[in-house]
Amino acid sequence: MAAAAAAAVGGPQPPQPELPAPGLALDKAATAAHLKAALSRPDNRAGAEELQALLERVLSAERPLAAAADGEEAAAAGGGGGPGAAEEEALEWCKCLLAGGGGYDEFCAAVRAYDPAALCGLVWTANFVAYRCRTCGISPCMSLCAECFHQGDHTGHDFNMFRSQAGGACDCGDSNVMRESGFCKRHQIKSSSNIPCVPKDLLMMSEFVLPRFIFCLIQYLREGYNEPAADVPSEKDLNKVLQLLEPQISFLEDLTKMGGAMRSVLTQVLTNQQNYKDLTSGLGENACAKKSHEKYLIALKSSGLTYPEDKLVYGLQEPSAGTSTLAVQGFAGATGTLGQLDSSDEEDQDGSQGLGKRKRVKLSSSTKDQSIMDVLKHKSFLEELLFWTIKYEFPQKMVTFLLNMLPDQEYKVAFTKTFVQHYAFIMKTLKKSHESDTMSNRIVHISVQLFSNEELARQVTEECQLLDIMVTVLLYMMESCLIKSELQDEENSLHVVVNCGEALLKNNTYWPLVSDFINILSHQSVAKRFLEDHGLLVTWMNFVSFFQGMNLNKRELNEHVEFESQTYYAAFAAELEACAQPMWGLLSHCKVRETQEYTRNVVRYCLEALQDWFDAINFVDEPAPNQVTFHLPLHRYYAMFLSKAVKCQELDLDSVLPDQEMLMKLMIHPLQIQASLAEIHSNMWVRNGLQIKGQAMTYVQSHFCNSMIDPDIYLLQVCASRLDPDYFISSVFERFKVVDLLTMASQHQNTVLDAEHERSMLEGALTFLVILLSLRLHLGMSDDEILRAEMVAQLCMNDRTHSSLLDLIPENPNPKSGIIPGSYSFESVLSAVADFKAPVFEPGGSMQQGMYTPKAEVWDQEFDPVMVILRTVYRRDVQSAMDRYTAFLKQSGKFPGNPWPPYKKRTPLHPSYKGLMRLLHCKTLHIVLFTLLYKILMDHQNLSEHVLCMVLYLIELGLENSAEEESDEEASVCGPERCHDSWFPGSNLVSNMRHFINYVRVRVPETAPEVKRDSPASTSSDSLSSLHSSRRPKVLQRENSGTAQVFSLVAERRKKFQEIINRSSSEANQVVRPKTSNKWSAPGSAPQLTTAILEIKESILSLLIKLHHKLSGKQNSYYPPWLDDIEVLIQPEIPKYNHGDGITAVERILLKAALQSRMNKRIIEEICRKVTPPVPPKKITAAEKKTLDKEERRQKARERQQKLLAEFASRQKSFMETAMDVDSPENDIPMEIATAEPQVSEAVYDCVICGQSGPSSEDRPTGLVVLLQASSVLGQCRDNIEPKKLPITEEEQIYPWDTCAAVHDVRLSLLQRYFKDSSCLLAVSIGWEGGVYVQTCGHTLHIDCHKSYMESLRNDQVLQGFSVDKGEFTCPLCRQFANSVLPCYPGSNVESNLWQRASNKSIQDLIKEVEELQGRPGAFPVSISSETNLSKEMESVMKDIKNTTQKKYRDYSKTPGSPDNDFLFMYSVARTNLELELIHRGGNLCSGGASTAGKRSCLNQLFHVLALHMRLYSIDSEYNPWRKLTQLVEEMNSQQGNEEQQPEVPILYHDVTSLLLIQILMMPQPLRKDHFTCIVKVLFTLLYTQALVALSVKCNEEDRLAWKHMGALKKNACDAEKSYEVLLSFVISELSKGKLYHEEGTQECAMVSPIAWSPESMEKYLQDFCLPFLRITSLLQHHLFGEDLPSCQEEEEFSVLSSCLGLLPTFYQTEHPFISASCLDWPVPAFDIISQWCFEINSFTERHAEQGKALLIQESRWKLPHLLQLPENYNTIFQYYHRKTCSVCTKVPKDPAVCLVCGTFVCLKGLCCKQQSYCECVLHSQNCGAGTGIFLLINASVIIIIRGHRFCLWGSVYLDAHGEEDRDLRRGKPLYICKERYKVLEQQWISHTFDHINKRWGPHYNGL
Fold first, then answer.
1. E strands, 411-555, where?
2. Averaged pLDDT score across all residues of the chain
3. How far apart are CA 452 and CA 315, in angstroms?
4. What's this model's pTM, rounded to 2 decimal places?
5. If we measure between CA atoms, which residue out of 588, 629, 610, 642 comes closest to residue 544?
């Protein structure tokens, strides 16, 4: 290879060195300049030849292939450059040549200047964030890049942000796709005039160089492609070749980005056919070119494509030599029918003719033109480039290059044609591909850019037969996965369907092709061509029929199916995408009258296809039992085009309907689906597994319903309106298998249905009839009415968020249909029917979204149960709607009881469908209604309220839709003669209602009670009394004038069907006969039936009135309302009847019946006058007794239950109270003290596990359930009020220098630099970061009970949200999360009552006592030596506390493991808990009262545990700070003697609060109150001195001098020790002896605050300095001694707390302004001790004045901790962070996140930032929050909480305009901060309640 390189470079012409050398660049430039000059001459042939020769060498195609084939050796031999060097060299040459000797960058700039950039055309790949604006878009696929979007003005538009799935391109500037108003500033159309003309010589070289370059690229591609043996390209080799070509393709891509001028040159090169012919024909003597051409031909052949040689005429239209191509494909023999015709029109005719005759051979012969599939001829570079792009499975780089060229109009057309030409090849490659998903995305990425443009689509359709190609290609694709249909007649079926288990369907491989098809059908001009082309329609119906009857379900009758197939997903997706969406696309163009012809075409071919289908599956009149398919796309095409024809095109319905026989066939399968739905819901398909329920749900689900169930029901409505009503009704009951149930007899036998399913199937049948008769979706409702009805139905089921409403309301699936979600009509309807409920917070912390809830008037007038039933996926939603309706009626006082579904008035029917109402007026239905009313009245079994409700609904529908008023006289006259054949005289419900039926003959099983009666004349009481049990109907009969005739539903239906068939044809008869007979005589199942005659003597009216009595439970409860108020009959709409239960419904129906006819009114009155009991008395007693007993029993049971519940509730309440009361201050009121020895009550604890109560003892200790967690919340306090904002630009950064944690760290390390380590560790507290916080739910348990509880949790296999091995559990009572148990110290609840009496000891005595007590380690009541259970537990809990936080937060000592460390850690735990409680109270104690956590504080128990362990470390008495505070040391100089050893920390540098905790915890417990007060008094003196020192350092020299003198004057006054002026002046004079105030010259300004100090401001400073200590001390006192905290105003907090702590002398007068110094109580003379303390400071500042001063000024006023402040609009965060690169790997992370505590940018799950198996978020949560992290996920807008080893999704604090979260930014609507939510989040963080409030935790395994 090195040789080749050398030869290429060092040829004869330009003198050049052998290998690349430094001078080469100049030479290249020179050569280029020379060539450019040569080419510029008028006669440039010589120059051209010279250039060709040079390019020939530079771009030799041999090299890379050597490199590709054996890259390794080549690299070794390639002279250091490896395979890449030569390519780079070639590219360098090209760049030089293009620039013609100038610099390449200058050249680029020059070309860009001529760019008429009217289009943006930015191409992006998957996952890019783009925008779509519906207001500006013309095409629904319009998209904009973020830059163009933000530069344009889209305020108030309907836009959203989205993540591109397949990639796309920016449409800014393209007026075909979007409106010009939406263009951004850069692309607002520039007129071409201001773009200067491109100088000829600028791009001249490009025109010469680029063809060779592209040819070279094509040669690489040809060479690199090796056809693998198994016809599966090995991914590895292809990728290798592509990697090698990366630089070349990138170079081309860069050229496209130079703008329009360069693009047009490229277009010329790519489309020029002459260039291509010259370079690639493979003629000529160059062996390399020949070889390459051969490889190209092989690749073509192996793709199953032929390269038409010269003997064929070139072009696409001509058919190929049919025989040869077909032989290749293996279709020989089918050739005869294939057209060798010339015009495609004739072919179409031929195709449609052929279809009818040739049923089901291998279908390919029926497609139009083989050449579409098999012939490819490349005529330009562009065509071959696309060929290789497809062959290499659409490499991203190539796709991007091809798309980048699209702004060039000429190229766009050429490329589109080329794409269409390769369409069949694309499909073949896609089918074979392994990566079909990626490939699909890339195909759509290209095609959506081409086909969204209507002008272009029309051009290609006309010139390249785009539609033919698409349909043929789709047909071919599906043909590969056909199987024989098993529907109906398994053996003889000729129908083939797609197999849903095939990868092609399962993986949705077909979607790119289908989506292109849908896309082009959205253009009107294209769709019209499709609808006009009969041949295409035939082929398309052929395609649709492949899906007809797919995924057949067969009901399992014996055992459960072994393997539940999930193919139904594929089936539903296929029908929706491949059939329904193209259908909606076509429908959207059939909106006006002029398009009638199209509809006729579609309907005609659809019916033909259906007829073929019925023939193919051998269908006669009965569907095969126990099978159902949900997929009938042909039926649905037919239905939807019919609906459109009537609704929009004013077509006469009858002109497009087939004959009766066809209608009967058409209705069978949709009806079968409706019956199967009822069966599935009745659990009759339970053995088929869950998937069958899944299908039933998907069928009605919102995305599918208007392409599935709605057309089905509409088709059934059409059939019902045209067929004989009796036939239709009996078909329905037969399909639902409840014919046998409809008998008057009390028992029956059902041959086709089990008894347990009868009731629900009957309900199903009646409900279906109600839906069929009252649904008006396609029968006359306008679009807005439909939208409103849909919306009301959804809102009635549940309150809905805006987005879920958009999702649930079935919009027309085709995006161009008009009702776009979020459109104007949607919003206006929504505001008309619903009220918005803003998002609220429930106290439990669960967050609501903004919801819409129906307005009251909607419930009142528009609630439609029928629509709700139709649209519910889950049955529970119907119940939910009824419950909400009930609640509304109760609340508004309209109806108190349990209402029935209201009857809703319907939109008037469109005249074409009037026939539908005949169903309500047919005898069959009336017989059914009569029978059911009778059965309900007689309490036959298996009837429900639902059945009655539907029966009444049907009667009411019948009355509402009755024919015009009948004349009463006529009806009465011809009544008797007319009724000889059947039950009722006529078919009008109004007159039939009053018709009395006397006798009915029924067939009953021999065991039935009716049989025992033999005489038909037996009295009614006899025959009826035996009728109390009931089952269902076989036969309905009527006794009339002595002869009883059988009326059978089935027989009637058969008769009707037979008549119709006979009319149609005689030969069909022979087919039908045998089928009818054998179907229904199931052998062996024929029951022994016998005939009985029942006396009935009822009419529908009389049954209704008796029903009213029965429902109300009173005799004669019905009284006709019009007798009192005649008005009732005049104004029919009476509000009181609108809502109510069954009684109301009956009254409403009777009123309507009376209104419709005078006869009915008279008969109702008559029936009511006969005050006879409705049924014989003995029957009443039996039945009523039964019902009464039942009622009574129910009532009693109800009362019992109530009583139990109440008792249980009260027990629970008292239990909770006692459980919560542990240690509560209320219990701490001491007993009456009768004697000097007080009786102390022992605390009693309840164990929540074993339920026993008792004190905590040493052998059986009780413990509090606690949660220990490490916390860094305190460390986040800052000293400035201005909250920190989340950074959203590069400039804003957050530095943690001013946080509390940082300040304390700096202080400790400063101390450790200069002072003795052990002493430093007593001078501060730690735990600002990683401190341990202890909280409890307040429940107690025995520690041994807890251990066994933990054991049981360990053995419990259920997956818990916590880890038992880490000691985690939930409190057995309140289920709060916990991880340890804190032992309760045995002894009194009240720590010590001695403080009740004022102690008379002087402070000096108390100080001595304190010192003695501290020195006695053995004084602890529980001696450590004897290992009791209690002490063991105390040790173990101490271990838990230590292990809660990381080692780095415990070890601050220089010598690891030193005891001082433990000591520091323990008192710091107490400090952390006190400080946090203070923060929870808002940072001060003004509110007073018990702690905010209510009674749930465990500080008392915690103190015991800590004290016990602190006492193990006795402080050496010499170092005990107590000494320094209370005694004067004699020789002050002794300390300076030992210079070599570091000094102790001066007492003034000590943290006073830490000293307090050390002193208290060192005392034996329980502590006495006077000792506590004594310690506080002593420490206050030190604190006050520190405040004075800090003040003196803060002010300037003059102030100091002034104070020094002022104070000196008062020094001898009596209360000098309590005057701050005196003390301050003394401090100043003492410290002046050292160097503290010196060297201030330069830094003075920095330290000094410019305010002038007045006495008031000084007093305030001193008080503020001391307050934090007083607060913590008061809290401590509150917990130790149970004293309540007084509440106060903020300004008096100091005085209130100091008097509460006993610092203020009791006689202190409050008149004059309060002075903090009056609280001082010096144990030793003040001046002596102060000077002793100051001396320590002076001796330190001798050497380190600067540090000395820094240590004195302590920041005591920390503000409350806050999370970062977030911007108002989420987009600002998103735009900055989603492109921000990771600091570790400098890539843009896939899941960026930002910490809301400190603003750090982290990668979620990013492997780049992983350290020792910890991902970055987990690591950061440990460093920033000691195990608690709060992160905002940028790409999802949600907040994730990490707590230790668990995490949970908290939710989002950003909501859209409708108050909804947008997780994962799926909807991409603008989001705004919800301040309330953010507050809740912050509150949970500060109060450490994440674990308790958030429920869904999971382990993160350190992977976040």
1. 482-484, 496-498, 553-554
2. 78
3. 26
4. 0.80
5. 610
Element of type H or E holding 757: helix 755-774
DSSP 578: I
Question: In this structure, are residues 306 and 325 in contact, taking their beta carbons and an 8 Å threshold?
Answer: yes
Percent helix, strand and coil across the chain, each to the nearest 5: 55, 10, 40
User: What does the DSSP 8-state code read for residue 1421?
Assistant: S
Chain centroid to CA 983: 58
Residues contacting 1373, CB < 8 A, separation 6+? 1219, 1248, 1337, 1339
- Eight-class DSSP state of 800: B
Q: Distance between CA atoms of 63 and 7, rounded to whole angstroms?
A: 11
If you count DSSP H runs as helices and E runs as strands, how many of each does the chain have, helices first? 75, 30
- The H-assigned helical ranges of 1484-1568 are 1499-1510, 1521-1526, 1552-1562
Closest CA to 1757 of 1478, 1560, 1537, 1418: 1478
Which DSSP category does 851 fall into? E
Return d(Cα 254, Cα 95) in angstroms, integer: 11
1537: exposed, middle or buried (Cβ count in 10 Å: 0-12, 13-18, 19+): exposed
Q: Which of 306-310, 864-868, 1460-1464 has the highest mean pLDDT?
A: 864-868
Residue with tokens 């293009």: 98
- Is the model's pLDDT at 339 over the cut of 80? no
Residues 1261 and 1381 sit within 8 Å (Cβ to Cβ): no
Nearest to 1416 by CA among 1506, 1517, 1509: 1517
CB-based contact 80:368 (threshold 8 Å): no
Pairing of strands 1380-1383, 1846-1851: unpaired
Structure tokens at 67: 């490199």
Q: How far apart are CA 750 and CA 758, in angstroms?
A: 9
If one counts every other C-beta atom within 10 angstroms of the C-beta of residue 188, the result is: 15
Own/partner contacts of 912-915, CB < 8 Å, gap of 24 or more, are 912/646, 912/652, 912/653, 912/721, 913/653, 913/717, 913/718, 913/721, 913/779, 913/780, 914/721, 915/720, 915/721, 915/722
Pairing of strands 123-124, 1846-1851: unpaired
| 66 pLDDT higher than 70 | no
Distance, in Å, from the CA atom of 438 to the CA atom of 443, rounded to the nearest integer, reads 9
CA angle 59, 60, 65 (to 5 degrees): 115
The CA distances from residue 1247 to 490, 1214, 1263, 1375, in Å, are 70, 14, 9, 15
Contacts of 1097 by beta carbon, 8 Å cutoff, 6+ apart: 996, 997, 998, 1020
Whether the per-residue pLDDT at 862 is higher than 50: the answer is yes
Cα radius of gyration (the chain) = 46
CA angle 1429, 1435, 1439 (to 5 degrees): 140
Choose the weakest-confidence range: 732-741, 1298-1307, 1484-1493: 1484-1493
The C-alpha atoms of residue 1690 and residue 1222 are separated, in whole angstroms, by 31
Say how far apart CA 728 and CA 924 lie, in whole Å.
9
What three-state secondary structure class fits 1429? helix
H or E element in which residue 803 lies:
helix 802-808
Label residue 1023 exposed, middle or buried (CB < 10 Å: 0-12, 13-18, 19+): buried
At 813, give phi and psi (nearest 5°). -65, -20
Q: Determine the length of the chain.
A: 1904
Nearest to 998 by CA among 975, 1027, 1021, 1020: 1020
Exposure string over 1679-1718, b if 16+ CB within 10 A, otherwise e: bbbbbebbebeeeebbbbbbbbbbbbeeeeeeeeebbbbb
Could you tell me which residues come within 8 angstroms of residue 1657 by beta carbon, excluding any fewer than 6 positions away? 1651
